[in-house]
Write a structure and sequence with these properties.
44% of the residues lie in helices and 12% in strands. The chain is α+β, with helices and mostly antiparallel strands.
Length: 218
Protein backbone atom coordinates (compact mmCIF):
# COMPACT_ATOMS: atom_id res chain seq x y z
CA UNK A 1 0.00 0.00 0.00
CA UNK A 2 1.31 3.43 -0.93
CA UNK A 3 1.19 5.71 2.09
CA UNK A 4 1.29 9.24 0.68
CA UNK A 5 0.98 10.61 4.19
CA UNK A 6 4.49 9.41 4.98
CA UNK A 7 5.84 12.11 2.67
CA UNK A 8 3.51 14.75 4.10
CA UNK A 9 4.59 14.31 7.67
CA UNK A 10 8.34 14.06 7.14
CA UNK A 11 8.80 17.82 7.42
CA UNK A 12 6.58 17.94 10.54
CA UNK A 13 5.03 21.16 9.28
CA UNK A 14 1.50 22.51 9.40
CA UNK A 15 -0.82 20.65 7.07
CA UNK A 16 -2.96 22.38 4.49
CA UNK A 17 -6.61 21.42 3.96
CA UNK A 18 -5.57 19.38 0.92
CA UNK A 19 -2.90 17.61 2.97
CA UNK A 20 -5.42 16.83 5.71
CA UNK A 21 -7.80 15.35 3.12
CA UNK A 22 -5.04 13.15 1.70
CA UNK A 23 -4.03 12.11 5.19
CA UNK A 24 -7.60 11.22 6.13
CA UNK A 25 -7.97 9.04 3.02
CA UNK A 26 -4.69 7.33 3.79
CA UNK A 27 -5.79 6.81 7.38
CA UNK A 28 -9.04 5.19 6.20
CA UNK A 29 -7.07 2.66 4.15
CA UNK A 30 -4.62 2.11 6.98
CA UNK A 31 -7.42 1.54 9.48
CA UNK A 32 -8.90 -1.12 7.20
CA UNK A 33 -5.56 -2.90 6.98
CA UNK A 34 -4.87 -2.63 10.69
CA UNK A 35 -7.69 -5.03 11.71
CA UNK A 36 -6.70 -4.18 15.26
CA UNK A 37 -8.96 -1.96 17.36
CA UNK A 38 -6.13 -0.67 19.54
CA UNK A 39 -3.96 0.30 16.57
CA UNK A 40 -6.91 1.88 14.77
CA UNK A 41 -7.72 4.00 17.85
CA UNK A 42 -4.09 5.11 18.11
CA UNK A 43 -4.12 6.09 14.44
CA UNK A 44 -7.31 8.08 14.87
CA UNK A 45 -6.00 9.85 17.96
CA UNK A 46 -2.67 10.74 16.33
CA UNK A 47 -4.49 12.15 13.30
CA UNK A 48 -6.87 14.21 15.45
CA UNK A 49 -3.98 15.63 17.46
CA UNK A 50 -1.80 16.07 14.35
CA UNK A 51 0.96 14.21 16.18
CA UNK A 52 3.03 13.77 13.03
CA UNK A 53 5.89 11.77 14.54
CA UNK A 54 3.59 9.21 16.13
CA UNK A 55 1.40 9.10 13.03
CA UNK A 56 4.36 8.24 10.81
CA UNK A 57 5.42 5.46 13.18
CA UNK A 58 1.90 4.00 13.22
CA UNK A 59 1.50 4.22 9.45
CA UNK A 60 4.82 2.43 8.99
CA UNK A 61 3.51 -0.31 11.28
CA UNK A 62 0.30 -0.60 9.28
CA UNK A 63 2.29 -0.77 6.04
CA UNK A 64 4.13 -3.81 7.41
CA UNK A 65 0.78 -5.41 8.22
CA UNK A 66 -0.35 -4.86 4.64
CA UNK A 67 2.73 -6.45 3.08
CA UNK A 68 2.02 -10.01 4.21
CA UNK A 69 -1.41 -9.84 2.58
CA UNK A 70 0.07 -9.36 -0.90
CA UNK A 71 1.00 -13.05 -1.01
CA UNK A 72 -2.63 -14.16 -1.16
CA UNK A 73 -5.48 -13.71 -3.62
CA UNK A 74 -7.80 -10.75 -2.99
CA UNK A 75 -10.79 -13.06 -2.50
CA UNK A 76 -9.06 -14.78 0.40
CA UNK A 77 -8.02 -11.46 1.95
CA UNK A 78 -11.64 -10.30 1.64
CA UNK A 79 -12.73 -13.44 3.52
CA UNK A 80 -10.23 -12.70 6.29
CA UNK A 81 -11.43 -9.10 6.39
CA UNK A 82 -14.58 -10.18 8.22
CA UNK A 83 -12.50 -10.69 11.35
CA UNK A 84 -9.87 -8.94 13.45
CA UNK A 85 -7.28 -10.34 15.84
CA UNK A 86 -9.18 -8.71 18.71
CA UNK A 87 -12.10 -11.01 17.91
CA UNK A 88 -10.29 -14.18 16.84
CA UNK A 89 -7.43 -14.04 19.37
CA UNK A 90 -9.37 -12.58 22.32
CA UNK A 91 -6.90 -13.77 24.97
CA UNK A 92 -4.07 -12.09 23.09
CA UNK A 93 -1.95 -15.23 23.00
CA UNK A 94 1.61 -14.42 22.01
CA UNK A 95 3.08 -17.94 22.22
CA UNK A 96 1.88 -21.07 20.44
CA UNK A 97 3.49 -24.42 19.59
CA UNK A 98 3.75 -26.37 16.37
CA UNK A 99 4.69 -29.94 15.47
CA UNK A 100 6.77 -29.33 12.37
CA UNK A 101 6.60 -31.41 9.21
CA UNK A 102 9.52 -33.51 7.99
CA UNK A 103 10.25 -30.91 5.31
CA UNK A 104 10.41 -28.10 7.90
CA UNK A 105 13.07 -27.03 10.38
CA UNK A 106 13.34 -24.94 13.53
CA UNK A 107 16.03 -22.99 11.71
CA UNK A 108 14.15 -21.98 8.56
CA UNK A 109 11.03 -19.85 8.09
CA UNK A 110 7.67 -21.60 8.03
CA UNK A 111 5.20 -20.98 5.20
CA UNK A 112 1.73 -22.32 4.48
CA UNK A 113 1.16 -24.93 1.77
CA UNK A 114 -1.22 -22.71 -0.21
CA UNK A 115 0.24 -19.61 -1.86
CA UNK A 116 -3.10 -18.10 -2.91
CA UNK A 117 -5.61 -18.95 -0.19
CA UNK A 118 -8.02 -20.39 -2.75
CA UNK A 119 -9.46 -23.87 -3.20
CA UNK A 120 -9.22 -25.72 -6.52
CA UNK A 121 -12.62 -24.27 -7.44
CA UNK A 122 -11.31 -20.74 -6.90
CA UNK A 123 -13.23 -19.93 -3.72
CA UNK A 124 -11.54 -18.71 -0.52
CA UNK A 125 -10.35 -21.50 1.75
CA UNK A 126 -12.30 -21.28 5.01
CA UNK A 127 -11.19 -21.99 8.55
CA UNK A 128 -13.81 -24.71 8.88
CA UNK A 129 -12.58 -26.27 5.64
CA UNK A 130 -9.03 -26.36 6.96
CA UNK A 131 -9.95 -28.00 10.25
CA UNK A 132 -12.20 -30.54 8.51
CA UNK A 133 -9.59 -31.65 5.96
CA UNK A 134 -6.52 -31.52 8.19
CA UNK A 135 -3.24 -32.28 6.41
CA UNK A 136 -4.94 -33.78 3.36
CA UNK A 137 -5.32 -30.44 1.60
CA UNK A 138 -2.96 -27.57 0.87
CA UNK A 139 -4.41 -24.60 2.73
CA UNK A 140 -3.23 -21.07 3.63
CA UNK A 141 -3.55 -21.78 7.36
CA UNK A 142 -0.59 -22.81 9.51
CA UNK A 143 -1.78 -25.07 12.31
CA UNK A 144 -0.39 -24.84 15.81
CA UNK A 145 -1.36 -25.67 19.40
CA UNK A 146 -2.41 -23.18 22.05
CA UNK A 147 -1.54 -25.87 24.62
CA UNK A 148 2.19 -26.64 24.90
CA UNK A 149 1.62 -29.99 26.63
CA UNK A 150 -0.65 -31.24 23.85
CA UNK A 151 1.89 -30.15 21.24
CA UNK A 152 4.68 -32.08 22.94
CA UNK A 153 2.47 -35.17 23.31
CA UNK A 154 1.62 -35.05 19.60
CA UNK A 155 5.27 -34.57 18.67
CA UNK A 156 6.33 -37.60 20.73
CA UNK A 157 3.50 -39.69 19.26
CA UNK A 158 4.39 -38.77 15.67
CA UNK A 159 8.14 -38.76 16.20
CA UNK A 160 8.44 -35.13 15.11
CA UNK A 161 10.04 -32.00 16.53
CA UNK A 162 8.10 -29.27 18.33
CA UNK A 163 8.80 -25.55 18.09
CA UNK A 164 7.55 -22.53 20.00
CA UNK A 165 6.33 -19.60 17.90
CA UNK A 166 6.54 -16.03 19.20
CA UNK A 167 3.52 -14.31 17.65
CA UNK A 168 4.81 -10.85 18.54
CA UNK A 169 7.33 -11.36 15.73
CA UNK A 170 4.75 -12.54 13.17
CA UNK A 171 2.69 -10.24 10.94
CA UNK A 172 -0.63 -11.88 10.17
CA UNK A 173 -4.03 -12.95 11.47
CA UNK A 174 -4.52 -15.41 14.29
CA UNK A 175 -7.46 -17.69 15.09
CA UNK A 176 -7.64 -19.24 18.56
CA UNK A 177 -10.01 -22.14 18.05
CA UNK A 178 -9.35 -23.39 21.58
CA UNK A 179 -11.58 -20.48 22.64
CA UNK A 180 -15.23 -21.56 22.65
CA UNK A 181 -16.61 -18.21 21.44
CA UNK A 182 -14.18 -18.10 18.52
CA UNK A 183 -14.83 -21.74 17.69
CA UNK A 184 -18.59 -21.24 17.61
CA UNK A 185 -18.20 -18.13 15.46
CA UNK A 186 -16.02 -19.75 12.81
CA UNK A 187 -17.10 -23.40 12.72
CA UNK A 188 -20.68 -24.56 12.15
CA UNK A 189 -20.25 -28.33 12.16
CA UNK A 190 -20.33 -29.73 15.75
CA UNK A 191 -17.95 -32.58 14.89
CA UNK A 192 -15.40 -30.19 13.41
CA UNK A 193 -15.75 -27.94 16.46
CA UNK A 194 -14.97 -30.86 18.77
CA UNK A 195 -11.91 -31.74 16.71
CA UNK A 196 -10.59 -28.17 16.95
CA UNK A 197 -11.21 -28.14 20.70
CA UNK A 198 -9.52 -31.49 21.30
CA UNK A 199 -6.37 -30.39 19.48
CA UNK A 200 -6.33 -26.87 21.02
CA UNK A 201 -6.17 -25.62 17.43
CA UNK A 202 -4.63 -22.21 16.81
CA UNK A 203 -4.36 -21.07 13.19
CA UNK A 204 -1.91 -18.57 11.73
CA UNK A 205 -2.26 -16.79 8.39
CA UNK A 206 0.87 -15.02 7.22
CA UNK A 207 3.28 -14.87 4.30
CA UNK A 208 5.93 -16.47 6.52
CA UNK A 209 6.85 -17.17 10.12
CA UNK A 210 10.37 -15.75 10.37
CA UNK A 211 13.25 -17.70 11.85
CA UNK A 212 13.62 -15.26 14.76
CA UNK A 213 10.06 -16.16 15.86
CA UNK A 214 10.82 -19.90 16.03
CA UNK A 215 12.47 -21.77 18.91
CA UNK A 216 13.01 -25.52 19.12
CA UNK A 217 11.77 -26.94 22.42
CA UNK A 218 11.61 -30.72 21.87
Amino acid sequence: MELKAARLIEDLGTLSKADITTLEKTFAKAKTLAKDDKLAIELEQALAEQDFTKLKTLLDEVEKIGKWQTKFDEKFIEYLGQYSNDITNPKGRDKVWRVIRDDQSAYTEIVAKSETGLTKSGSPFTIEGHVATGTRTETPFISSFSDEKLAIERGLKDGKKVVEIDLTKVQGQFFDLSDETVRNLLIKNPRTRRFAQASSEFLIVTDKIPVNAIKAIK
